[in-house]
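Deviations from the work plan: none for this task. Representative record:
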Amino acid sequence: MSVIHPTNGIMYGMVIDLDKCTGCGACSVACMTENNIYVLKDESDKTRSITWMRLYQVENGKAFPETESVIIPRPCMQCGQPACVPVCPATATTKDEIGGIVSQITVRCIGCRYCVAACPYHARTFNWFDPWPLYKNHVEQMAGALNPDVPPRMRGVVEKCSFCHHRLMAAKARVYTETEVKNPREKYHMSEIQAVPEEYYQTACAEACPAEAITFGDLNNPGHRVHQLLKERKADAFRLLEKLGTEPRVYYLSSRRWVRKQADNYLNSPEKTVG
Amino acid sequence: MTGEKEFLQALVAGNFWYDPAFSYGDMGGAFGTPSGKFEFFSQALDKAMADIIGKVGNETAGRGLGVADLSLLPLPHQETFIPAESSRQFPLLMMPLERFRLNNSNLGNAPYLTKLLEDTILKGDNLMVEINPRTASALGLHEGGRAKLATSRGAVTVLVHLFEGARPGVVFVPVGLGHTGFGYYLKGKGVNPAEIAEITTDPLSGQELWWGSRANLSRI
């Protein structure tokens, strides 16, 4: 079954240049501080660890000294045909947003974890713990560092990368306030702002990347860097598990052939979780 | 040119002006060295070395000082670090490994970075060491297996991670864990390789070296 999800011509996406990525984890740390993700005492159990932007290390499988490895940062793919959306019985995750972002309405989530099982990218994580006791008992100073734009999630719900959706809201508000109209009444009747300038809306990970490996913008807009990058380096571009037909909105660039090949070779690749 | 007026005239006339380059004269004899250039050579070291060689001979002096080429000693140069010989008791070489996302200075790792550590570095409170699968099979070790890492200074318990990229015969131990402080997120996690590392002295500088120790990894 194929459903066409409307995006109103805007398609937010990301291009991650794996040739530039050093695996420093700045994207992941920026994401966690931006989106109020808590830290448990023991995070080495990756089935309990919540990370929206997770780093995977992939190796070419050759023996020493021909071994090569690459770090693949993996946000939510914001798929064009998401596997998580049709399985949600609570309609807590939808694909009808302008810009094509797969939403996650945590207050509506009933915690059945169907979406966690459906997502082929392991982009969804379940809250096994309430964040507040963690902040209160152990890291009171971190409670003060919470981002007021993003609500912390409670125990028993699923969460995932939102492409920093609150920043899109803020960008729209900025466009609204900056729009000059003769009569203030016109603003009241302004239809919803759709396109925002590239520099108004950038995700936390794209901003934090010191190697400038992550680029974010509207894939359909020829003026945006993501669009140009994909055109310039068409031969190096690939997506994860393209075979499945999920139409991910996150593109990767790599000049290494074995990396591109492994991206679609899930079952046989020597893949390990990093963080 | 003396005044602003002449300067402006010269500029207008030719759009540019230049002064002849300053002559330093012949610089060939400025340094009394064979190359005629800067050469750093310690006369004191040369003299001391000549005394030692006169007493014990060339070969013994070289061995005693830990220098391969004695003629280089008075000159600034670098010596390759040669770890102790592999022995039956300690067949492997233990090397501390600096990792991204793991702070190894006197400050503790930040909680978010500790969260991002691979489950091939830290598993629960256990540190994982990296070895080549070929070395592991020779030692009877398998992925995730518990092992005793021993040097002449002591022994610690670690878990084993097999990585093709690791040089055969070398145990790579991540540095930055094994803290006794830093509270909730770091205390008691992993081990510090410095606790069991053999400390040798760099013959040239006298600094302490702990970058390679003979070690043994045995299954528990």
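Chain B has two domains: 1-79, 92-219.
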